[in-house]
Design brief:
The protein is mainly α and 120 residues long. The protein contains 5 helices and 2 strands. It has one domain. The protein is elongated, with a radius of gyration of 16 Å.
Length: 120
Amino acid sequence: MLYKSIVKVQSLICLNRNSNEPVQLVSRQKYFVGPLNANDRVENGFYDPGHQIANEPLTSLESYKSQAVDLEMREVILIDEDKDERLMKYLSLSKTIVQQATTFEAKISALALFVSKFHV
């Protein structure tokens, strides 16, 4: 179970810039289907407005950006590598950790320790 959790965390913090899959497809999958799989890549531009409410369609990111801030509504989580320095720091650190580990098991253990200490 730990292995699956670590792979999922690794998948969620990894930004795959070489994928041909549009970011919107992963955002739609999260909205309509639920939790992402360990193989799903969260790329720059991914956003998560929460679970689908009834039969409402997924609101576009541009639409969310144009709305006034409403503290009563659920926040929309956005992966924005250009504006999120903390995300880039964690991504860089996680890549360094993985590169320094020599075995697959060591990579999993190192990432688990990293996530447990720095997930704040």
